[in-house]
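Sample pair:
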Amino acid sequence: MQTFLFVLIVLAAIGALVSVVRGVIIMLRTSHEDLTGTGVSQSGLRQNRMMWRRIQFQAIAIVFVVLFLLVARGHAG
């Protein structure tokens, strides 16, 4: 069970990392028109979506870490 949870933690961490990298790439591709235009830019919406995905992956990773620690504590006692 610990191995399975560890793999899930690693996968969630990789998901967060990929979301950060994609968000940075989207930010770097933001054009001058996106920054000075009126209304909401598509680039801004994609950046926001990547930020939320990163937060979701981090929350999932934290839940898996807590479960991992609870399982490890139960086996140690």
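Residues 2-76 form one domain.
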